[in-house]
Amino acid sequence: MPLFAVERDLSQVPPDRFRSDLRGLVKACERLQSLGKKVRYISSAVFPVEARGLCLFGAEEPQWIREVNEAARLPYLRIFAVLDLTPVGVRRELSCGRRPPQPIAAPLPVREPPGDHGPHNGGGALNGGPAASPSRVTDDLARWSDEGRQLLHVLGGWLEEAAHIQAQADVVEGERDRLADEVQRYRDENVELRTQREELQQTLQTLAGRMAQAADEILNQFGRRGTSGDLAER
C-alpha cells in the first residue's frame, strides 16, 4: 500500500489537543474502509521546535487521504508521497507493500475543509485541483528522486564531517589532558625548587654567620697578640 504524509501547522494547537483529535482521524478511516476505500492511519510525529506535525497514512488512492482529513475536520498544509526505503529482510510495521505510490500533481492554491476556518489545507490534485499531465508527473517524480539522492549525499557528507570533527575533538581533548598533566608536573617541580631555594638560603645564612664568627675570633686573636708585643717592647 503506498505511503503518504500529511503536514500540519501546530503553532496554535497544544500537543494534548492534537493527540485527542487523532481519534477522530482513526474513526474517519474506519468509516471510509467500511465503504470499500482502502485507507489507514499509521502514526503521527510532532516537531515541537518548528510547531509542525506529520501524520503517516497508507492509501490505494491519494484523494482518500484528503477525504479522511476533511471528515475528521483536521486542517493540514499539504499531502505528499513517501517512499518506503526499508531494506529487505527488516521487519516493516508501517508498510504492507513496496510498489510506488500513485502520482500526485503539483500543489495548487490552498483551500479549507467545509465549515473549517483553521489553517488552510494543501492544494493540488489531492485537493480537487486539475490533474497534471503524465509528462509533468514523470518530471516531478524524477525531480523528487534527484532531490532525495542529493539529500542523502548531503547527509552523508554531514555525517563524515561530524565524524572528522569528533576525531579532532578527541585529539584536542587528549592534548588538553596531556598539557594539564604537564602543567601539574611543572607546578610540583616549582614547589620543590622553591623549597630547595629556601633551604639553600637558610644554609647560606648559617654559613655566613659562622664565617663572620670565625673572622671575629681571628681578629680578636691578632688583637691580643699585638697588645702583648707592645708590652714586651716597653
What are the defining features of this structure?
alpha+beta; Alpha-Beta Plaits; rod-shaped; 234 residues; four-stranded antiparallel β-sheet; 55% helix
Written description of the protein model:
There is one protein chain. This protein is of the alpha+beta class and 234 residues long. It folds into two domains: 3-130, ORF SCO4226, nickel-binding ferredoxin-like monomer (Alpha-Beta Plaits); 133-217. Helix content is 55%, strand content 12%. The protein is built from three helices and four strands, in the order βαββαβα. It has helices at 15-34, 63-71, 134-233, and strands spanning 3-9, 39-47, 52-59, 78-82. Strands 2-3-1-4 form a four-stranded antiparallel sheet, with helices on one face. A hairpin with a 4-residue loop joins strand 2 and strand 3. Helix 1 packs across helix 2. The longest helix is centred in the C-terminal third of the chain and has 100 residues, at 134-233. The radius of gyration is 44 Å and the shape is rod-shaped. Mean pLDDT is 76; it is low at 94-131.
Which H/E pattern describes the elements? Answer: EHEEHEH
Shape: rod-shaped
List low-pLDDT spans: 94-131
In what order do the strands lie side by side in the largest sheet?
Answer: 2-3-1-4
Total number of beta strands: 4
Alpha-beta content class:
alpha+beta
What CATH calls the topology of the largest domain is: Alpha-Beta Plaits
CA-atom Rg in angstroms: 44 Å
Helix content: 55-70%
CATH architecture classification of the largest domain: 2-Layer Sandwich
End-to-end Cα distance: 141 Å
- Mean pLDDT equals 76
CATH class of the largest domain: Alpha Beta
Strand content: 5-15%
Number of helical elements: 3
| CATH homolog superfamily of the largest domain | ORF SCO4226, nickel-binding ferredoxin-like monomer
Counted up, domains total: 2
Q: Sheet bearing the most strands, described?
A: 4 strands, antiparallel
